[in-house]
Design goal:
The protein is mainly β. It is 5% helix and 36% strand. The protein is built from 1 helix and 13 strands. The protein has one helix at 149-156; strands spanning 3-7, 12-15, 18-21, 28-31, 41-54, 69-71, 76-79, 90-92, 99-101, 111-115, 131-134, 145-147, 164-167. Strands 1, 2, 3, 4, 5, 6, 10, 11, 12 and 13 form a 10-stranded mixed sheet that branches. A 3-stranded antiparallel sheet has the order 8-7-9, with no helix packed on it. The chain starts with a strand and ends with a strand.
Length: 168
């Protein structure tokens, strides 16, 4: 097991011999038990790296990739509505509850690493769609951790099952 350590004060991600600038939530970071839907905080804690999502035509898995992965398309979304029985889970679009589209006009979700925050089982209102994804020129996220595309491309093949992200 390897650890991707995110120093939320320094806005740096450390992994093995790499130190990478990162963005976090617009509100900063908070203890995971204080995280609330829509608050803009990045939840502190140790989160498993679950799966990588790739947008066809904009990203692709390397042959050296060790983590499980899948493609996303226009039908893919993520439930962010605490009253939805599928809260903090992937869903198909259109969806009768509030949900975030995973295919966006920008490049932020061209590569998404799903983090194991509030997912086993999800607790309504405790935060959804906490991802590790591509940044927009180091601008704050809505609660995710984000890095430059070039850094993400370099990092992905070094990640392995059982690796975790430690947000401190």
């Amino acid at each position: 097991m390897s650890i991707l350590r995110v120093d939320t004060t320094a806005r740096m991600l450390n992994f093995k011999d790499r130190t990478i600038p990162c963005a976090i939530g617009r509100s900063g970071a908070c203890p995971a038990d204080q995280k609330r839907e829509g608050d803009g905080y990045t939840p502190q804690g140790l989160w498993a790296l679950r799966t990588i999502l790739f947008r066809p035509g904009r990203s692709f898995p390397s042959p050296q990739l060790k983590l499980p992965w899948r493609w996303i398309g226009a039908q893919d979304g993520w439930s962010d509505d605490p009253v939805d029985p599928c809260y903090n889970r992937p869903i198909g679009l259109p969806h009768r509850f509030s949900a975030e589209a995973l295919v966006r006009d920008d490049t932020l979700y061209d590569i998404i690493v799903l983090l194991g925050h509030n997912d086993r089982p999800p607790k309504p209102g405790q935060g959804s769609a906490i991802f590790f994804h591509i940044w927009n020129d180091a601008k704050p996220t809505e609660g995710c951790v984000a890095i430059a595309r070039s850094n993400m491309d370099d990092l992905l093949s070094a990640l392995a099952p059982n690796d975790v992200m430690d947000i401190i």
